[in-house]
TrEMBL record:
One of its GO terms (molecular function) is calcium ion binding. GO terms for biological process: cell migration; homophilic cell adhesion via plasma membrane adhesion molecules. Keywords: Calcium, Cell adhesion, Disulfide bond, EGF-like domain, Glycoprotein, Membrane, Repeat, Signal, Transmembrane, Transmembrane helix. SUPFAM superfamilies: Cadherin-like. One of its GO terms (cellular component) is catenin complex. This is Cadherin domain-containing protein. It holds the Pfam family Cadherin. It is a single-pass membrane protein. It comes from Exaiptasia diaphana.
Amino acid sequence: MLYLHIALSFILFLHLVEGNFYFTNSLGLQQLSEREELPVGTFIVQALTNQLAVDSFEISLDAATYFAINNTGHISIKQRIDREALISRTITGTITAKKSTASPNTVTATFRCVITDINDNVPSFPKRLYEVSTSEATSVGVLIFSQSAVDGDATLNSNLQYSIVSGNDGGKFAIDGTGKVSISSKLDYEQQIEYTLNITVRDQPGLSNWTILVVNIADQDDLPAKFTAFNYLGSVAEDATLVSIKTSLNMISNPSLKYQFSNLV
Ligand SMILES: *[C@@H]1O[C@H](CO)[C@@H](O)[C@H](O)[C@H]1NC(C)=O
Ligand SMILES: *[C@@H]1O[C@H](CO)[C@@H](O)[C@H](O)[C@H]1NC(C)=O
Ligand SMILES: *[C@@H]1O[C@H](CO)[C@@H](O)[C@H](O)[C@H]1NC(C)=O
């Protein structure tokens, strides 16, 4: 009778220990946050149950693509994670622990890991070279070019700053925080007909790229017509039948002038 009692107590005790199989850190398995691009094999977290030894652990769904779990519940990086390539920035899945002698034999926990950004993308303009034309008469302040660069990263890693690093002779152009280029001081075709601006973009941590903007200045009839000489001499024979005097009057700057004699002497 005593033996039976001891045996029954022992079975009951075993049942208490072995039963009620559950994860002890299931909440922690859902509140993970790891940065992208961690090396394969990096240890992340250990799934813990109330049982000393578990037959096996499994990880499933999306999580199984990027994370591996071994038979002691250690979860590590299985495949490189590129945050920009993920549809959702959070990787989720299910962790299952199995133990044949426990009750229940199988327990599951949700796995949820937010992937944070690192600055792994260089900003870039869609093209290496742009060309625009503007008249020398265009007012100061007018926008002549508007092309932002793109950066695949998040937050500060894609916070871009623009500058014209070369070619801005005489400081004729200004660039704003979104990469828009405008005229900042009066252009003059007679002074310079073309500018080659190197526009450099930089993200906050310092990765940079550039594009070239060629600005062609178009001439405007902004100068008074001017003869190149004070007087011009032609000669005509007194017996000339055809009254035609040919001489060339070289004019500066304007090809489409009309000429007329105003005072014949
Ligand atoms: C599981 O991985 C951890 C480290 O990531 C290691 O310490 C442990 O021994 C591994 N367990 C098994 C059963 O391989
Ligand atoms: C810089 O931008 C160009 C396109 O304008 C792109 O082809 C190139 O890959 C970028 N550089 C880097 C290091 O990403
Ligand atoms: C533009 O400037 C960057 C530095 O900001 C430089 O690395 C690049 O070579 C320049 N591009 C050209 C075409 O000069």
